[in-house]
Amino acid sequence: MNKYVIYFKKFIVGIAFVSMNSFATNLPDELLNAPIHLTSGKTVSLAEYKGKKSVYLKFWATWCQPCREQMPHFEHVQKKYGDSIEVIGINLGLNDDINAVNSTIKEFGLTMPMAIDEGGDLAQKFRLIGTPYHLLFDKNMNLIYQGHEADKSLDNKLDLVSRSQLEKGEIIDSSILIENESDILINTNDGKVHALFFTATWCDWYLKDSRPLAAEECILAQNAVNSIFQKSTNTSWLGVINRLWTSDKDLAEYKRKYSILHPIEIDKSNRLFHKYDIHDLPTILIIKNDAIIAKITDFTDTDKIIKIINNHEN
């Protein structure tokens, strides 16, 4: 065979290999096609930018102090790299609403697209365990940065990805985004009345300055549940603790602080919070035979809550 024909075939194969790998991604379709509903009304996904533009996702909350401290940096990233990197802010939607989000946008002059994760789907899919939470993807939608700090490490990756100068070794295995924590096992279809009390070990003190009313409600709620638990002996109680920045040690300290007697666990996989679409802390769900009987966020009248429970215990 003519040596030029051989060289030509190798050249074509090489082009095909480069072309194929230039659009390769290690993200599963579930993440690649996860809808991101922007407050503008537009819905986007990582798949839309594949082969076109890198993407930087930042999860945050208006009551999260480190998030607020990082907002000037966040806007700086948008101004400096907005043409080469799609910068998207994702509010958790936990103890937050559109008014609080818009107020923060105005306060810091934020100009990047914004989304509110109202159903918690994005937090669950991308394995959010604390805010602020940064995820950076190259143009091929490979994960190249995951972290919480707005530091030199993040800035370095942003600069490199904006100039497409990343090395292959800098790609992070996307399996770190796959949830590997065990679920809380609970059968709510056993004919019993179940009371699931959703709260956080930090909501009484961390929200004290940014959400004082919510902090007071957390204290009121836990004290109310302690009392109601002892008066509803036929109800199966479980305290479900939000996993954000919460360790087993934090839970142990919380139990001592409030002298908690009812069963309580950290929702380490976040699946109960996600399953029941919990947006507000604290919240009680009263469930019987898998049906939600009541959703309680007002803890000022314990007698009323006890009555709701007693009406379904028999």
Question: How does this model look, in words?
Answer:
This protein is α/β, with parallel strands linked by helices and 314 residues long. The chain folds into two domains: 23-177, 3-Layer(aba) Sandwich (Glutaredoxin); 193-313, Glutaredoxin, CATH 3.40.30.10. The protein is 38% helix and 19% strand. The chain contains eleven helices and twelve strands. The strands form three sheets. Strands 5-4-3-6-7 form a five-stranded mixed β-sheet, with helices on one face. It has a five-stranded mixed β-sheet with strand order 10-9-8-11-12, covered by helices on one side. Strand 9, helix 9 and strand 10 form a beta-alpha-beta unit. Helix 8 (212-231) packs across helix 11. It is elongated and about 65 Å long.
Query: CATH topology of the largest domain, which one?
Result: Glutaredoxin
Low-confidence stretches: 3-22
List SSEs in N-to-C order: HHEEHEHEHEHEEHEHEHEHEEH
What would you give as the CATH superfamily of the largest domain?
A: Glutaredoxin
CATH class of the largest domain: Alpha Beta
> Helical segment tally?
11
The CATH architecture of the largest domain is: 3-Layer(aba) Sandwich
Strand content: 15-25%
How do the strands line up in the largest sheet? Answer: 5-4-3-6-7
- Intertermini distance: 88 Å
Please tell me the total number of domains.
2
Topology, please?
Layout: H1 3-22, H2 29-32, E1 36-37, E2 43-44, H3 46-49, E3 54-60, H4 65-81, E4 85-91, H5 98-108, E5 114-116, H6 121-125, E6 133-137, E7 143-147, H7 152-162, E8 193-199, H8 212-231, E9 235-241, H9 248-257, E10 264-266, H10 271-275, E11 283-288, E12 291-296, H11 302-313
Parallel strand pairs: 3-4, 4-5, 8-9, 9-10
Antiparallel strand pairs: 1-2, 3-6, 6-7, 8-11, 11-12
